[in-house]
C-alpha cells in the first residue's frame, strides 16, 4: 500500500474555541490511483491533504507513505522527504515570479545538489509533455493561468515522486482551461502510473479521478470508486 | 553546492528583479561604512603622524630631557654632557610661531632652534641646497636666517631668499629663507609645518635667553638606557623629565584614547543605522516572500537552507557596500581630517599635523571582511524568521491579517527596547562603564538599539492619539494615510525605524553640542568681564599664541583709555601646558588682581567664591585652584597638597578650591603668577586683560594700541564680545565634524525609509488596485503615499527629539563629565527642535516621492491580479 492514513485527528485553537478539523480519519491508497477528495468548506479535506503531504502535523494518528511514518520525521527529514517523494500542485500555482518556467520546474531538484545542466533535459521533456516547449524561458507573468498550472504540474513531476498532491488545481482557472488541466493530470496518471490525491469542491473535476472520497465535518463520509 | 544552486537560481534572480532595492541597501551599507572608515583612517593617521613627529624630532636620540614650556637653564647642558654613558647631548629651543596676521592655528609653525654644528650627531636633514646643512657658517652668520620645509614653502608660495614676517616674543620680526628641507629626517615632523633656526637666534626671538627647552641624548654604544635615565634624573633633580621617544608617544596616545573612542562611537552609530537598513530590507523581503518561502519549504527546502538563502543574498550587498564605503571613506577622511585636528587642538592644547592619511591594504581587507560580516549578521535574524515560516503558507492567499506570533514579537521588541534603555540609564548614572570598557560600549549601543526598538512604539502611540484629529479632517486622503499607518504596526515600525535612528543621532549630537556651547557661554559671561584682551597673534582662545615679554605692560597701561584691573595694576596671564603624572594639563598663572576676583565671579565650584579667592592669594604657603579634571586624575581633594616640577625643583601647593575651567579636560591649575615666575623663571605672558576708561570706545583704544605698539610687538587687541564670539566659533569648529556624521546618518535614514516605503507600496499593490478601481485618482494615490511618508517623518522626528534629548541628558551629565573631566551642564537644544522636525519631514517627503510615483503609476488590472 502506498499511503496509509490511520485514525488521523487534527484540532486547532481559534481564540477560546477548539476546532476539530479531522476526527479520526483512516484510509489507504494503493499505487497508481487518482483520488479525488470532495467536501464543503470546513469539511477537513484540505487539512487531510496537508497532513498527507507533511505540510502540517496531526494531533494524533499516523500517515505512512511508502512504508515510512512521516509524522515521526524531524522537520529537516520531512523537508527532504517532501523534496524527494512528493509533488505539489497549488490552487494559486505558486511559481516563483523571478524564475523562468524551466527554472521553476527544476526547482525541487535545484534545492538538492543538482545543477540546472543536469536537470534541464528532464525539465524540458516535462514541459514538452505539457505543451510548453515554446514557453520554457518565459517568466510566470508572461504565462496564462493554464500555462502556469502546467508548469506547476511539470514541477510536481520533476523529482519522480511517489505521490502528487493537488489542492484545488483548477480553482483559479476558467472552466475550459480547468478541463484541459484535469485531462492532463488524468493522462499523466495513466501514462506514468503516478498516484494523485486531489482536493476539489467541483464534482466535475472530481469525476476525473478513479476514486472519490467525500468528507463532512472532519470525517470521511463516503469512499467510492468512480 | 546546494546553497550555491539556490543562491544562483533564486537569490540572484531576486536581486536582479529588484535592482533598486539592492542598490539602496548597498548604498546604506556604503554610507555607514564610509564614516567608520573615515574615522578609522583619521584616528590611525593621527597616531601615526604623532609617532612620526616624535621619532623624526628624536632622530638618533634615545632619551630627551625637558622641563616644560618655560625651559631650563642653559648651563645644565654641560652638567648633562659629563654624565657617564652620554655620547652626545644636543640642545634645542622649541617654540610656536605665527605668520603675521594669523588668526588660525593652521597659520602657525613649529620652530626648532638648533645648533647646526652639533645636529648631525642626532638628526639628519636633506636640503634642496645641501650646502646650507653641510656648511652652516653662512647660515649662522646671518641672524635673520631661517630654513623652511619644501612642503610649507610650496603651500605658501615661498622660495629661497624670500622674506617672511613671524610673531616673536619681541614682536614681529622679519626672517629670510636660506634653505628648504626635503621631507626626510626631522623635516617629516609636524606635517612639514616646521622651521629651523639657529639656537641663539631662537633664544632671543622667543624670550628664552640663557635657556634650553630640550636636550637630546645619544648614549654610548652598549649603554643600559634605564641606568642612564636614572643617572640623568638623579643628577638633574626634580623638575626635569627624562623620557624615551616611545614613552612620549604612548603618553600622547593615551590622552587621545577617550576622544577617539567617542569618534568611533559616533561613526559606529552611523554604521549601525546602515546595518538597520540591511536588517529592515531582509525583514520586509521575508514578509513579502512569505508565500514563496512556504512554497520552497513545501517543495523540500530545509530551514537552514532558507536562512542561508537570505544570508547569501546579503553577502554581495555587504561586500559591494563595504568596497564603496572604503572609497567614500577615504574621500571623507580628507574632508574631515582638518576638522578633527582642530577639535583635538581645542580640547587637548595639542596641535597634530596629519602628514598623510594612511589606509593600508590590510585595513581595507579588514573593512571588506568586517563590513560583509556585519551585513550578514544584520541579515541573520530576519533570515531566521524565514526558517520559521510554515510550509502551509504556500496554500494561503496573501493576507494582511495580524498574526498573533507577529504581535507577540512586536511586543517583545518593545519590552526589549525599554529594558535596553533602562540598562543604559542605570549604567550611565552609576558609571558601570568604568568597571570595564565593554560595558561602556554596550551602554552606548543600548542607547541606539533601545531607541530603535522602543521608538516605533511611541510613534504608533502618537499616531493613535492624533487619530481623532485626523478623523475630523475632511481630507479623505490624509485620513486614509493615517489609517494605513495604524493598520500595520510592523510595517509602520519598520518604515520609521531607520529614519528615527538617524534623527535620534542628530538630536543626541545636538544635545551634546548645545550643552557644550551654552555651558561655555555661561562660564565666559561669568568669568570674563574685562573689556579688552591684548596678546600676540595666533589662536587667542586656546592660548595658542606667541607669548610676549611682560615688560610690555607699562607701555600698554600708558595707552590713553586703558584702565588697569585691580589695585596693583597686574593683569597678565601665562597659560602653559603641563604634564602631571603623564596627563597633559594646563597651568594658568594669573596676576594678582584681587579686586577683580573679589567683585566679579571667580568660577569656583561648590565653595564660597570670595573666600576661596582670598585664601588662594593670601595663603602663606603656595596655593592653587584646580579643576575637577585635575582632582579626578590626581586623586586629590580640596585641602590636599600636590607637587609640581619646576626648573627650580619640586614645589608643593595646597589645593585652596575647585574652579571651573575648560582650558584642558585633563586638568587646569590656577597659580599666582608671582609664585609661577619665581619657580619657573618665566616672565612671558600669554594674554593681558584690561578695562576701558570711561569716555573711551573700544575702537579708539584698539587703534591707539595698534599705532603705539602693534607694529613693534605684533599685538592683537580684541574686545570682550569678539573674544566670546571667537570662543563660540571655536566650539562650533570643534563640533564641525559632527555635521558630517549627522548628514551620513540622515542619508542612511532616508535610504532606509525609501526602501521600506517602496516595499510597503509593493505589499499593498492589490489594495492600491482596489482603491483605483473604486475611483481614486492617480494624484490621490500619490498624495496618500506622500502623506504616509511625511506623517512618519513628523512623528519619527518627535520621538527622536524625546529620546535623543533623554539619552543626550544622561550622556552629558554622566558619561561626558566622567570621561572628559569637564563639568558640562545639560542644555536642551531648543534651536534644534524645529530643525529636527523640518529635517524629518523633508527627508521623509523626499523618500516618499519615488514610492508615490510608483504607486500612482500602477495599472488597475495588473494591481488587482498581483500576488
Task: Name the features.
heterodimer, A: 226 residues, alpha/beta, Rossmann fold, four-stranded antiparallel sheet, 10 strands, B: alpha+beta, 15% strand
Structure described in brief:
Helix content of chain A is 35%, strand content 29%. Chain A is an alpha/beta fold.
- End-to-end distance of chain A, in Å? 20 Å
Largest interface between protein chains, with number of residues from each side: A-B, 37 and 31 residues
Provide the domain count of chain A. Answer: 1
Beta-strand content bin of chain B: 15-25%
Could you give a short account of the major beta sheet of chain A?
A: 6 strands, mixed
Secondary structural class of chain B: alpha+beta
Say what the CATH topology of chain A is: Rossmann fold
Account of the protein in words:
The complex is a heterodimer of chains A (226) and B (867). In chain A, 35% of the residues lie in helices and 29% in strands. With 226 residues, chain A is α/β, with parallel strands linked by helices. In chain A, strand 9 (211-216) and strand 10 (219-225) form a beta hairpin. In chain A, helix 3 (101-110) packs parallel to helix 5 (145-157) and helix 5 packs parallel to helix 6 (175-192). Chain B has 867 residues and is of the alpha+beta class. Helix content of chain B is 60%, strand content 15%. Chain B starts with a helix and ends with a helix. The chains are: A alpha/beta (226), B alpha+beta (867). The interface between A and B is medium-sized, with 37 and 31 residues.
